[in-house]
Amino acid sequence: MFKKYRWLLFYSGWVLVVFPALALGLTLMPIIPALQEWDSIRFSYYVYQSQYSLVGLGTLLLAVGAIHAWPATRWWWRTIMVVAVVLALGVHYLSRTEASAEVMFNEPTSVVRISANPENLGADTTVYLWIERNGQIAGYPLDLVAHHHKIHDTIGGVPVLVTYCTMCHTGRVYSPVIDGKLESFRLVGANHFNAIFEDKTTGSWWYQATGECVVGPSSGKSFRDVPFIQGTATEMLGLTRSRSISMFIPDRETGDRYSWSRGYALRAGDTTEALGRKSIMIGVIVGGEARAYPLFDLVRNHDGQSIRDTVNGTVVAFIRPNRFSAPVTVFQDSVTSGVILQSYREYWHSWQHFHPATKVWKHQ
């Protein structure tokens, strides 16, 4: 029987061997952008969970088919069989190296921060994600975070997970403590052009843009947000009294690998007057209600005045930026209140997807 179906066994086994690597590569990486629009995270998760079973079964079928086909075939069929096996091995090798999100955007092997004197920061034009915990301030260069996508660190004795997704152009900072336990995460890829993290304990998958776990044993849980400020050192110093400052620097293994992401902090996105996929929004969420402020609208109608708006009964205010690269800090009640409301910079396609009920502010 095996001899009769040798070619069916061989090629069926080959398909099973390469299917997990190809399916995960196509759905979790933007190789074919249209596939990112498909809500494929659950499909990808279950393929990932069953990949070793599929590869094991496929290897068995492929081997049985090859054993019965090899003696009865000519040299060109044997060549095709060898090429097929080499191709399968190559697909799996790439899926775990150059084509792996975890390898491409490596996490630092050691998190190193250097102390900084506030008096020497006036000329620093680097855009950082600034986090203050227990009187200590840590700055993470946005371009460097964009390369890593996530950084585990501890500030003032408080663990933090600093994240940035390059495809949706937005940063988030979360507490990596889940159910009272310090958790670690790895980058597995993306869906809807947003990074997906996997926790080590349960293997569940979490979206970077919302901090929500959407598939796996921890499904339904969410990260706790950690406040942060996106801006230069000068802008940060104007918003805080703390002077215990340190800045994150590349570790030895990363070196200049993040050179590809230089400039992410200053990307302007779509600057036309239309609301496009890559139009950058200043996003605010108050009590579950989302509001988006198109950056092109704010800059185009810059008049030196501040914006005052009401979101879910709370007055939000910020100074209208005069250029696309200008950081925006949102305050409660007024720009002089000193009470900062968390805000985000994000491409419209991402903000709209993860906050479908959002309202869009328009210049009057």
Q: Mind explaining what this structure looks like?
A:
The protein is α+β, with helices and mostly antiparallel strands. It folds into three domains: 6-99; 112-264, Rieske Iron-sulfur Protein (3-layer Sandwich), CATH 2.102.10; 268-360, no CATH class. It has nine helices and 23 strands. The longest helix has 29 residues, at 41-69.
Strand composition percent: 25-35%
The number of domains: 3
Roughly how many Å apart are the termini?
Answer: 77 Å
Reading off the top of the CATH hierarchy, the class of the largest domain is best stated as Mainly Beta
Strand order of the largest sheet: 1-15-3-2-14
Biggest β-sheet strands, sense, barrel: 5 strands, mixed
Q: What is the approximate shape?
A: elongated
The CATH topology name of the largest domain reads Rieske Iron-sulfur Protein
Total E-strand runs: 23
CATH architecture of the largest domain: 3-layer Sandwich
Enumerate the spans where pLDDT stays under 50 for 5 or more consecutive residues.
Answer: none
The chain-level structural class is alpha+beta
Query: What proportion of the residues is helical, as a percent range?
Result: 25-40%
Q: What's the multimeric state?
A: single chain
- Count of discrete alpha- or pi-helical segments spanning 4 or more residues: 9
Cα radius of gyration in angstroms: 24 Å
Average pLDDT, to the nearest integer? 92
